[in-house]
Amino acid sequence: xxxxxxxxxxxxxxxxxxxxxxxxxxxxxxxxxxxxxxxxxxxxxxxxxxxxxxxxxxxxxxxxxxxxxxxxxxxxxxxxxxxxxxxxxxxxxxxxxxxxxxxxxxxxxxxxxxxxxxxxxxxxxxxxxxxxxxxxxxxxxxxxxxxxxxxxxxxxxxxxxxxxxxxxxxxxxxxxxxxxxxxxxxxxxxxxxxxxxxxxxxxxxxxxxxxxxxxxxxxxxxxxxxxxxxxxxxxxxxxxxxxxxxxxxxxxxxxxxxxxxxxxxxxxxxxxxxxxxxxxxxxxxxxxxxxxxxxxxxxxxxxxxxxxxxxxxxxxxxxxxxxxxxxxxxxxxxxxxxxxxxxxxxxxxxxxxxxxxxxxxxxxxxxxxxxxxxxxxxxxxxxxxxxxxxxxxxxxxxxxxxxxxxxxxxxxxxxxxxxxxxxxxxxxxxxxxxxxxxxxxxxxxxxxxxxxxxxxxxxxxxxxxxxxxxxxxxxxxxxxxxxxxxxxxxxxxxxxxxxxxxxxxxxxxxxxxxxxxx
Length: 518
Description:
This protein has 2 domains: about 5-15 and about 25-245, Jelly Rolls (Sandwich); about 260-510, Divalent-metal-dependent TIM barrel enzymes (TIM Barrel, Alpha-Beta Barrel), CATH 3.20.20.150. Helix content is about 20%, strand content about 30%. It contains 10 helices and 30 strands. The longest helix is centred in the C-terminal third of the chain and has 16 residues, at about 365-380. About 50% of the residues are buried.
């Protein structure tokens, strides 16, 4: 049986006794263990002064301390922020992780994978040139016999920190070290990708050994997650760890199994699934990592239901309309962005225009100004913007999205590749377009399709159907080290959505299985 763990309200799949292939999780074999309920029973060893609270916030009487609200779901290292480290009872190898944290002014902590390899947690708000010791940095190693003693620290590419007292997030992929049958290390550990507040700050960083202040100085195939508790006040919540098996060293996409796979809401609604709770329950039951929102239903209700079953809201679809003198944004956008604060949700942004011809660079200046404004708003809540090429819109092609993203030049602005829209536009030069998009690629959508289809019924089918072979697309995404989410498009398919999604999930698992044919 493969076990599912829930830390602070998120689903967490726990590693078994060894890193080896496991069958897909089904609703019948999920064993759920609450690690952050009303006790610390599932956290190993002495938990010291750590407390379980409903929420944490800057102490109104001292900006360098945290205050808490009674309840559970948030881990806080005591009233002074000076206690022992917190270790998970479960041990992990290769993982994808989502972790949210908060520090007050001037405070310091760290997240140690396997108790050995640290991603720094620090109040780095306002730092212009970040170092390895700033938030999001990979902390240096230490050797008293070397000069200098510290070495191999890795600074984040940019400082993506938010102000002290605000919730922040890490989303990352970690690859454990490898050992031969005699126990000798044959490959180093790696952080394949680290995103801080939605901004990628590290890619494929090799670690020759444990970092400074680690709990264990040896290296092993498995180890616990550790939160540093003695350097200052810190709070952690919404911890989601998904183990993976035999993750390739150079593939941020994890070969065949790393990408989160979510069901777009265009394919989750029928007469039997007309409410948000029924749709989210179905997505959860069938094993999808979450869903998106294209403007349908109550957003607060959707977030509550997703949180309840440990699934994520990966994207919200909100268009921009541009003209020579103004840009029109979706109604209620500032409120929406505030509601999504700290969730890492992507703002999917198609760009329409009644003035500029499709794909015409004449609209670039207006688009760049509008997207820049949206990016600044999104950054306030730690969100990213992924330009969404859409047939018939001004922003119709992947190359249009890349051109605008480059001109906007914000670290939280990227692009989406949509299989159905690429096929509808021309279906040409797949590899070249993905190579072009690769440095900016935040999101991908796919589905079953006919290779020569030109109407939506043939261009959007359940995954596994149609004449278009999805495997080369997935292989190319692996080749460019794409580890981001992949959404299942379902617009206009019709019929029984549960059956559509069930068949699509079966096709996805077959495509991403280690033994899948080339």
